[in-house]
């Protein structure tokens, strides 16, 4: 599972440690030391994964994530010294796929990277059908989402949730069940993570996010996915 990984980290020594570990696992790695260079490199050659430090010069990691999420689906693993729940949720809200707090073990970081690469690389099987729920189409093979013929860009965590719910429409999922699908997230994250993902998904697939037709809340229990075209 060799991959091209872009490391955006302003701490030169830290970046070098990450680069060496990545290359030891057979990946190719490029290091940049500011947010502007990270954006430019992703636009030039989209990596298989972006390891992104939050605190960087020129453009910070949160703004880098905000910009890139409007343009592409590159998986993002954020690194930060901030460890409050609000900081973690903000990173996820901006589209990060995983979030690690400093200090961390390089071995744990490599394990997170392996997990993200497994989750985000397209499967090679061709016999899995596209799941259609009304005008919503979820392709578990290519890991794509469409709505009324247009592509919907989802983060890895958002896709895992949506694909699981699409496979069992009308089933009510608890937050804990959905949280298990987003494995790989920072251990400090709670079930509030799911609310953030659901909110982001509603912004992407609902005509009126405050009155969701597809991703409905089952109060006191969790969420379910239904055929939203019936509500049109």
What about the largest sheet? 5 strands, parallel
Portion of residues in beta strands equals 15-25%
Low-confidence spans: pLDDT under 50, at least 5 residues? 122-126
Per DSSP E runs of 2 or more residues, the count of β-strands stands at 12
End-to-end separation in angstroms reads 44 Å
How would you spell out the order of helices and strands? EHEHEHEHEHEEEEHEHHEE
Give the overall pLDDT as a whole number: 85
User: Mind telling me the C-alpha Rg?
Assistant: 18 Å
Helix percent reads 25-40%
Identify the overall geometry: elongated
Short description:
The protein is 38% helix and 21% strand. With 232 residues, the chain is α/β, with parallel strands linked by helices. Strands 2-1-3-4-5 form a 5-stranded parallel sheet, with helices on both faces. A 4-stranded antiparallel sheet has the order 6-7-8-9, with helices on one face. It has a 3-stranded antiparallel sheet with strand order 10-12-11.
């Amino acid at each position: 599972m060799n991959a091209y990984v872009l490391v955006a980290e302003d701490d030169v020594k830290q970046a070098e440690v990450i680069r060496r570990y990545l290359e030891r696992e057979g990946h190719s790695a490029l290091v940049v030391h500011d947010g502007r260079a990270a954006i430019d490199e992703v636009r030039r050659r989209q990596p298989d994964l972006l390891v992104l430090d939050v605190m960087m010069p020129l453009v910070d990691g949160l703004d880098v994530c905000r910009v890139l999420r409007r343009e592409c689906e590159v998986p993002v693993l954020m690194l930060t010294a901030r460890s409050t729940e609000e900081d973690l949720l903000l990173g996820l809200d901006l589209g990060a796929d995983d979030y690690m707090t400093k200090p961390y073990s390089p071995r744990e970081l490599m394990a997170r990277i392996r997990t993200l690469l497994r989750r985000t690389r397209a499967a090679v099987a061709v016999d899995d059908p596209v799941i259609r729920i009304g005008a919503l189409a979820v392709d578990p093979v290519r890991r794509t989402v469409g709505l009324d013929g247009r592509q919907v860009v989802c983060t890895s965590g958002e896709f895992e949730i949506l694909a699981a719910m699409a496979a069992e429409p009308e089933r009510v999922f608890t937050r804990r069940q959905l949280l298990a699908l987003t494995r790989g997230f920072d251990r400090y994250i709670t079930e509030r993570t799911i609310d953030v993902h659901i909110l982001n998904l509603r912004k992407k697939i609902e005509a009126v996010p405050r009155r969701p037709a597809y991703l409905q809340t089952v109060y006191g229990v969790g969420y379910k996915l239904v055929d939203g075209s019936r509500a049109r």
